[in-house]
């Protein structure tokens, strides 16, 4: 598994993202409309007034598996969904890639994992992923009730695929919400995400 993790990291370095301006914390989050796994449309505009978390995922990625196999991602989803946060899981793997999952397959994987996201969607054409300059899985974003991006980057500071590292990691999403709830600015609004390269189409 560690070898796979190193290969994934190397692949990330070798496959640069198409040139697009990366949204910066403090700016308005890019507008989007997604179709969820049940075929319903959901837009960022209709979620205004609520905190929104965007979680880029790919079930084949060992870094994603780290957070799901340990139960970490599901725990975060349940915790923040209970507080009214809209947690959106997005898979931007291109339909032409072997790791692409059809909506029913992605839905079944999330069900087996016990995921508790409020919304799950595919972004097979990469429109939303590229708008956010999402590079890896997992890549995390937090948007405030005014539609402003307040955090973008890694889920935590343990850049490994080892589930055991979750317990000792500083989780940047948790940190951001703790500061926001306390009325404080996010002290680490941007970090370098780590994980497997998102398999965008050519």
How would you characterize the overall build of this protein?
- There is one protein chain.
- With 202 residues, the chain is α/β, with parallel strands linked by helices.
- The chain has a domain at 46-154 and 170-194: Glutaredoxin.
- Helices cover 28% and strands 17% of the residues.
- It is built from six helices and nine strands; from the N terminus they run H-E-E-E-H-H-E-H-E-H-E-E-E-H-E.
- The strands form three sheets. A five-stranded mixed sheet has the order 5-4-3-7-8, with helices on one face. A two-stranded antiparallel ribbon has the order 1-2. A two-stranded antiparallel sheet has the order 6-9.
- Strand 7 and strand 8 form a beta hairpin.
- It is globular.
- The two termini are 28 Å apart.
- Residues 1-16 have low confidence and may be disordered.
């Amino acid at each position: 598994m560690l070898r796979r993790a190193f290969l994934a990291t190397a692949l990330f370095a070798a496959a640069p993202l198409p040139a697009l301006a990366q949204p910066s914390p403090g700016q308005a989050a890019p507008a989007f409309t997604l179709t969820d796994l049940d075929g319903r449309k959901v837009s960022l505009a209709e979620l205004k007034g609520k905190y929104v978390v965007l979680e880029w995922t790919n079930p084949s990625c060992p870094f994603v598996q780290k957070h799901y196999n340990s139960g970490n991602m599901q725990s975060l989803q349940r915790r923040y969904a209970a507080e009214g946060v809209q947690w959106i899981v997005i898979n931007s793997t291109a339909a032409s890639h072997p790791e692409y999952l059809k909506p029913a397959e992605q839905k079944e994987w999330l069900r087996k994992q016990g995921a508790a996201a409020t919304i799950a969607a595919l972004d097979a054409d990469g429109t939303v992923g590229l708008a956010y300059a999402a590079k890896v899985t997992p890549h995390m974003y937090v948007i405030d009730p005014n539609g402003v991006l307040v955090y973008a980057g890694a889920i935590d500071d343990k850049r490994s695929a080892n589930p055991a590292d979750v317990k000792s990691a500083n989780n940047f999403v948790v940190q951001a919400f703790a500061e926001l709830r306390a009325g404080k600015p996010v002290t680490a609004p941007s970090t370098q995400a780590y994980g497997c390269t998102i398999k965008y189409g050519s």
